[in-house]
Amino acid sequence: MEMKYLGLEISKLRTELGMSQNELAKNICTQSTISRIEAGEVYPAIDTLLKIALKLQVPIEYFIEMLFHKNVFESESLIKKIEFHLKVHNYKEVIAIINRNEKDSENIWLNLYLEYLLHTAHYELKIISAEECITNLKRILNFSNQTTIQFRFLHIKINNAIANIYGANGESQKSLYYYNKILKEHLNKSYSDSKIYETLITVLFNKCKVQYELNDIDAALETANQGIQKSKETCFFILAGQFLYYKGQCLEKKNAPFKNIQEVYMQALFIFEFLELPFYINAIQENKKQYLKQF
After folding, report:
1. Structural domain of residue 39, as residue ranges?
2. Helix 154-168 vs helix 130-143: angle between axes, to the nearest 10 degrees?
3. Is 233 in the same domain as 285?
């Protein structure tokens, strides 16, 4: 593993605990040494790493386990290629890419990641049932090394997938259980890795949809507002328009003043146009034209 990845992980954990470099260094080493470790300039000695692990409240195995993830970073192009096809729901190509990939028995995390994606792609293409997919995903969660499964927040992605499948198959309460489990544990924590916020905001959006479908309008409105706020805080705006759209629908259900509803839909339209999302632009112009006609 390149030194920079160990340093980034130490920096991430320290930031999450609200700890300064000076506080981490106290009784271990100098602040400048911590700075150099986090910058990837030096490896800490094993006794130093042990003390750092204790202070960051993680087992020493957490850092040792990262040594087995070194090839994950070398597989970035594979991951990006798969994620591109996932975004456009091209599940056949996802399966083809995974099957073409030569499995590396030492690349533990990547193998779990690909297994999770393979199960979900098979489910989306109706190759396996929802029940079988959920069973397979729970098996990954329950029988994998917990340090490995938490790397890059894979456990959150898998729990979100389980919630989505439950929701798509009419088991809304089970779906909400998993969404709430994720959000309760992670939403209000501080993370240095911005990608976690993308995942958590997506979970919020999925939760909002389920609540709206259950006609729990007050809860859906609260979640929509929470999603809008988190989008602003994290500068991750890709779902902000959709949150605003659901907020507008909730306000309609609650018979809010016309101007309030109109303002929300106009904000949603602005974001859809700014992000160049033609599907959503057409949807809001067609379905909510009575609120947009003055513009």
Report:
1. 3-58
2. 160
3. yes
d(CA 123, CA 129): 6
Count of domains in the chain? Answer: 3
90 located within any domain: yes
Residue listed under structure tokens 């979640």? 223
Q: Between these two residues, 234 and 224, which has the higher pLDDT value?
A: 224
pLDDT (tens digit, 9 = 90+) per residue, 58-112? 877 667 666 555 555 667 788 889 989 998 899 999 999 999 988 877 778 889 9
Tokens of 61: 């195995």
Report the predicted TM-score, pTM, of the whole model to 2 decimal places: 0.74
* DSSP symbols for 131-187: HHHHHHHHHHHHHS-HHHHHGGGHHHHHHHHHHHHHHHTT-HHHHHHHHHHHHHHHT
Q: Report residue 216: phi and psi, to 5°.
A: -90, 75
Task: Write the CB contacts of 160 (distance below 8 Å, at least 6 apart in sequence).
Answer: 178, 179, 182, 199, 202, 203, 206
**CATH code: domain of residue 151:** 1.25.40.10
DSSP 8-class letter at 56: T
Q: Cα–Cα distance between 34 and 42 in angstroms, integer?
A: 9
Tell me whether residue 63 is in a domain.
no
Residue type, 219: A
Per-residue pLDDT tens digits for 37-57: 998 888 888 789 889 988 998
Compute the Cα dihedral for 145, 146, 152, 156 and give only its sign: positive
